[in-house]
Every structure is written in structure tokens, then in C-alpha cells.
Design brief:
By secondary structure, the chain is mostly helical. 63% of the residues lie in helices and 0% in strands. It has helices at residues 11-24, 34-51, 56-72.
Length: 78
């Protein structure tokens, strides 16, 4: 069994990768509702969970951190 996927990677690099995956699945041409963003984040985290073990506590933490980073960086603002 391989080591957990978050070990050995800098967290910032990992979050950047996840953020890019989240943004790829969103229609940036329109105003994006928070619920849609959270659903997309859940999809990305679930797809990673299938490849690698992701503890539930980290999943909730990363979900919130990704959402906050998207909104704070105005990646999805008008």
C-alpha cells in the first residue's frame, strides 16, 4: 500500500492542484453560487479519495480551506 497522498507534498502545492481541478469544472462565464462551488469541491475531494486515503477530518478542513481560498482570491468573482 502506498503512503498517503498528502505526505511528502507541500500543502500549498497540493491546494493549488485541487483548486485548479475545482475551477476547471465551473462555468466561470456566469456568477457561481456558493452551493455550486461546494458541490464541485466535494466532487474533486471524492475523486481524490478514491485514489488515495483521505481522512474525514482532513476532507472537511480542506473543503473549507479551498472554498475560502477561491472566494478570498476572487477567482470566481464577477
Amino acid at each position: 500500500m502506498s503512503a498517503p497522498w498528502w505526505r511528502g507534498k507541500r500543502m500549498e502545492n497540493w491546494k493549488d492542484e485541487l483548486q485548479a481541478l475545482v475551477v476547471q469544472g465551473l462555468d466561470l462565464g456566469a456568477r457561481v453560487d456558493d452551493g455550486v462551488i461546494l458541490d464541485r469541491i466535494d466532487q474533486v475531494l471524492t475523486s481524490q479519495k478514491r485514489r488515495y486515503f483521505l481522512p474525514l477530518s482532513l476532507r472537511f478542513r480542506y473543503r473549507q480551506e479551498l472554498f475560502d481560498s477561491l472566494r478570498r482570491l476572487d477567482v470566481l468573482s464577477e
